[in-house]
Amino acid sequence: MSKKVVSQAYLAPLKGAIQYDVIIIGAGIVGLTLAIGLAKQSLKVVLVDAGKQPKQPKPIKGDKAPVFNARVSAISSASEALLKDLDVWDKIARMQPYTHMHVWDTDGFGEIAFDTHSVPTMGTPKLALGHIIENEVINAALFEQLTHYANADCYFNAKASDLHTNESGASLLIEPNKAEAFHASAKLLVGADGANSKVRSSFGFTHTFWDYDHHGIVANVSTQYAHGNTARQAFTPFGPLAFLPLSDPHQSSIVFSQQSNQAAKLMDLNDAEFEKALQVAINNHYGSVTLNTPRVDFPLRMRYANKWTCKHVAIIGDAAHTIHPLAGQGANLGISDVLTLLDIVAKHKDSLGEVGMLRKYERCRKAEAMKVIATMEGFKRLFDGEQAFKKLIRNVGLLGANKLPGVKAFFIAQAMG
Length: 417
Prior knowledge:
By secondary structure, the chain is an alpha/beta fold. The protein has 2 domains: about 5-55 and about 135-210 and about 300-375, FAD/NAD(P)-binding domain (3-Layer(bba) Sandwich), CATH 3.50.50; about 70-135 and about 210-300 and about 380-415, D-Amino Acid Oxidase, subunit A, domain 2 (D-Amino Acid Oxidase, Chain A, domain 2, 2-Layer Sandwich). Helix content is about 30%, strand content about 30%. The chain has 10 helices and 21 strands. The strands form 3 sheets. Strands 1, 2, 3, 9, 10, 11, 12, 19 and 20 form a 9-stranded mixed sheet that branches. Strands 6, 7, 13, 14, 15, 16, 17, 18 and 21 form a 9-stranded mixed sheet that branches. Strands 4-8-5 form a 3-stranded antiparallel sheet. A hairpin with a 5-residue loop joins β6 (about 100-105) and β7 (about 110-115). The chain is globular, with a radius of gyration of 22 Å. The two termini are about 40 Å apart.
């Protein structure tokens, strides 16, 4: 196979720039998905990432419980459809469909619950509201599929520098290690390199930024009672707590979004104290709770790039937008960017990287991203705080949403991406 995957291996020095159709910086879920989609369109693609090459999880031996990574995504049916179209879905080593969702206010009477039977269908029963999958497991499946394309090169443990454009395209220096540095050029350079995007900053794309003054605490836990294929989210006085079901019936991934001062207090607790805090916050739905992984906390911030494209350059996924993890839609929003860009590229290959085609992508996705950001910000503000009026509004709202079909459908649509 002529497929080229480079991490630490030796690569003979090359003279001059290697010409590609598209260069992608960033090999997360979004970058890998885009690379496969472009390669499937017979475009020559190179993917560059500073991290390690993704690997499939080791098979579980005997009755030993699997060890899950704490960073997961709630993959929507729309994202699932694209991953199936790219022949990735069946390569995902493990996933957990969730068929029920339950959301409530811990300090009030409001709640909403729905399941697959609540979802309007066109004659085909809905088997799941979505799937909880570890990010590293998705990445491993994506990378495995990408290796089947001889027209796609991958460089891991690699540095991208000297980014610039001219009238004919974009170019950069790829350094798998200093002895192997070479230049690559393409008609289109895509930054899928995350919230602190080098591509975004290199081309002067300014962005709007604000700090939510919240931290997200993530970990994986084992529970006394099985999760029952249910995703649960409790709105506590200091922020939401989500229990997301994993493929072991007694394991869940938790995301505890708390005001920064409260998050610091939770991180200072010993494991037994933190486990008890989770049990109380989730209204004892799972019985006793035991940590399987160390707690990790990170600040929650919103970023929205004011400009997403220029001639021969585009940004995508978290490089263009980051949102509050309230509804777990970050990965789905990025995959929607991919779907739009793939569609536009397929229709405009003759003008790949030109301003006109890239503006079509930018106009479409900026509007959608802003709508999601505004929706999540509205939810965040409504469920953040102890003011009596806010508490009344959100409890009446949840109660009404659970009883009014139109409002309930909106909540279901948000949950399913």
